[in-house]
């Protein structure tokens, strides 16, 4: 069934919430992924059909803005559409997570249609005709920020085999978890509670998939602040041979509303 826009109930599970009962950024990303899969399924392309066709979509880039923190138990729903489909290969999907008290978060996802070998491949008309372009305004924009360099911090992760997604690599929301884990470790070292960390926005570009037994380094460096005084960090995920797997930026603040202590944790000194 071909529809330009799909809207349906989609709730964040209990395990998506921190000890502060606030949804973690990575789990909001997982919710957006579920929205894309559900919309594709409703359009006639469930996961098993892609498997039978020996094709898939993988995320190349994603931008998310968090409008507020979701409350567990509130009735949330997803609204999603394909903004454009370029060269029958790159699909830009817009997703909005809406709740009882208004918008929760917005996402722009750039999906690449790939072959069984995970190489970019043109999709046939049987698929592209199920995803007509629809325009409800421009894609999500990452917040503006002023350069303000600070300290860099890193930690290492060895991938587990049990982390693998259906395409046998680390699923893209996990990289947001890793970035927030790096931030949280610095906060603990500086005497701050990581439970107070609040997501504002993320933009990630995915270049090379990570899979076990890879061991990667997650680097986080303060690069600026927004006009509202929120911390802007640049992140990189690197293999031991220096291969850049993922890079991007996050914007974070403290739930108390005063983020000076968080900025200070990443001061150059």
**Which fold name corresponds to the CATH topology of the largest domain?**
Thiol Ester Dehydrase, Chain A
The biggest sheet, with number of strands, parallel, antiparallel or mixed sense and barrel status, is:
11 strands, antiparallel
Q: What would you report as the Rg, rounded to the nearest angstrom?
A: 19 Å
For the record, what is the CATH homologous superfamily label of the largest domain?
Hotdog Thioesterase
- What string, H for helix and E for strand, traces the elements in order? EHHEEEEHEEHEEEEH
CATH class of the largest domain: Alpha Beta
Oligomeric composition of the shown chains: single chain
Count of helical regions? 5
Average pLDDT figure? 96
Shape: globular
Number of domains: 2
Determine the structural class based on helices, strands and strand pairing.
alpha+beta
How many beta strands in the DSSP annotation? 11
CATH architecture of the largest domain: Roll
Show unreliable segments: none
Kindly, what is the distance between the CA atoms of the first and last residues, rounded to a whole number of angstroms?
58 Å
């Amino acid at each position: 069934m071909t529809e330009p826009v799909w809207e349906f109930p989609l709730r964040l599970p209990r395990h998506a919430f921190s000890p502060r009962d606030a949804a973690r950024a990575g789990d909001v990303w997982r919710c957006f992924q579920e929205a894309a899969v559900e919309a594709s399924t409703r359009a006639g392309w469930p996961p098993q059909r892609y498997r039978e066709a020996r094709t898939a979509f993988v995320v190349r880039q994603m931008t998310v803005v968090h409008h507020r923190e979701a409350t567990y138990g509130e009735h949330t729903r997803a609204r999603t559409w394909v903004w454009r489909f370029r060269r029958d290969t790159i699909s830009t999907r817009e997703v909005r997570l809406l709740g009882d008290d208004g918008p929760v978060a917005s996402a722009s996802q750039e999906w690449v249609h790939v072959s069984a070998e995970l190489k970019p491949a043109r999709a046939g008309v049987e698929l592209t005709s199920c995803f007509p372009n629809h325009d409800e305004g421009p894609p999500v924009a990452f917040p503006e920020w002023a350069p303000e360099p600070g300290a860099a911090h890193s930690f290492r992760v060895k991938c587990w085999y049990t982390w693998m997604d259906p395409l046998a690599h680390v699923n893209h929301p996990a990289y947001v978890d890793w970035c927030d884990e790096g931030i949280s470790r610095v906060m603990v070292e500086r005497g701050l509670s990581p439970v107070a960390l609040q997501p504002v926005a993320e933009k990630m570009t995915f270049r090379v998939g990570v899979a076990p037994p890879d061991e990667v380094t997650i680097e986080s460096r303060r690069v600026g602040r927004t006009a509202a005084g929120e911390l802007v960090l640049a992140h990189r995920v690197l293999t031991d041979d220096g291969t850049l797997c993922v890079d991007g930026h996050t914007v974070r603040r403290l739930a108390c509303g005063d983020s000076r202590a968080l900025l200070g944790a990443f001061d150059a000194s």
